[in-house]
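task queued by scheduler; priority normal; single chain, no ligands, no partner chains; default sampling; output format set to structure tokens
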Amino acid sequence: MKPSKVKLKAPKPKARPRPSRDRDTGSSPPSAARPSEDAQRIALCAAEAGLDKKAGAVEIIDVLGKVDYADYLVLMTGQSDRHVAAIAEAVDAALSKKGFDAISVEGLPSGNWVLIDFVDVVVHVFQESTRSLYDLDGLWMDARRVPVPSGVS
């Protein structure tokens, strides 16, 4: 009698844990969800770091309740692949200094579009042509914009 071969299945990748949106009473509906306390600070710090590196067209978009993967999107534009990479590295470093480490950074080698994932905040650093092509600004035109700090040194 031949022993049967058992096929092993590769484990499925685990989804990253999302904090519960029912923070106060445990009974608030999703439409009444509020961003985490740190999410807005992360978004503002990312915008400030981008502006310090001369990023253009910086926008903070509130997507809470519209998507389940983030509370805010931060969009900004660099003038070249090196500029995009410098902006992305500055954002990552500034937030790391404040104790917020990215769980993923995608696109750094090419520098056309770098995505930095801070769980509740996703930062997109684009070259102008790539930003126009994907038009995330237009996709989220109905979402609330958070004022970007203008007095950044």
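post-processing summary
- The first helix runs from residue 37 to 52.
- Confidence is low (pLDDT under 50) at residues 4-31.
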